[in-house]
Protein: Cytochrome P450
Amino acid sequence: MGTMQTSIVFLCGTLFLYLFFIFIKFLHKVWWTPIQIQQAMRLQGIKHPFYRFLYGSTKEILNMRKESNGKPMELSHYIFPKIQPHCTLGSTSVSSLVSEAEFVKDIMNNKDKSYPKNEPDGFIKKLWLLRSADDIESKKLKQGICKSIIRTIVKREKAMNVKVDSFGNDFLGLLVKVNYDADEGKRITVDDVVDECKTFYTAGHETTISLLTWTVLLLGIHTDWQEKARQEMNMIINESLRLYPPVVLLPRIVKHEAKLGKFSVPANTTLVIPTLSIHHDTQIRGEDAQQFKPKRYSEGVAKATNNNLAVFLPFGLGPRSCVGLKFGLNEAKIALIMMLQRYAFTLSPAYIHSPIVMLTSRPQHGVQNPLADKWDENKDGYVA
Structure:
């Protein structure tokens, strides 16, 4: 009997210590760390709305987005206030908007590995008692996908033992080759390879659909550009990506204290690069920044940005930029060329301009473009 009581006391004590440890870790993450970050930033002249325990500004953000999504806007390409009315507020963590080109370049290039992409909270994932059935199933699927990709990678790596540099010239082969790059600055890890494979097959689809949708909208408004599109497709695509980038924010977490220009950024700070805001900045683009003017890219992206690629970020920048960039662009170009060869279209009067973000930017009520067979003057008739 005494042994059983001792065991019960021991188990209860262990459980209490475990729960106490979790509670302290929870407080450290949602209270102590944000307060410390906010204090460090204020001392450097960077002010945020005062951090409120646990929820931060989440309630205000949700209300602002709900109000914004509940009403359409006039037909204007300046969609930043509509899509991101909350960007002046904080969130459940302390974050900072970063729009200066040099800072953006340093963060996205991430040469010293100080600014990795955001990951889910680690200690919460370990609390199986707090997981729902959907969470458990989601984890199993994620592990299954990772194992499947890793098995495929291992098969490619085994090929190297047979023939040097025989990873293949397809997407996976190129990624595995970079994994073995002699230059450590260019080399990526196996985890990076897995992440890029998942990105290619998921986010790649959404971004291409977003690009096509907004480009069709722009060509429906500016019908004169439909005739020019065959020769100037790159210009039209780039201008569409500038005005309506699929990804409107690029968040990065500060892994350890880092120096960003004259600022010292504390660890665990979330840095948010507002792609949409940068693309619409009149100080960078000029007074016509809100207008559809593909001609600004007539001499390429480098010329249009004054050789500062950090101000054109539809697919990110640096080693972790979108791996499906060329594939997605070519896919969009082919779809648009096939459409423009056969049809002419205008924007329907019934179209309601209400851009929103659901993973990627998209029109809330779709884009309605009545299609008409295109008249071919060379053949003196309609295209067959």
User: Anything to note?
Assistant: The chain has 15 helices and eleven strands. The radius of gyration is 25 Å.
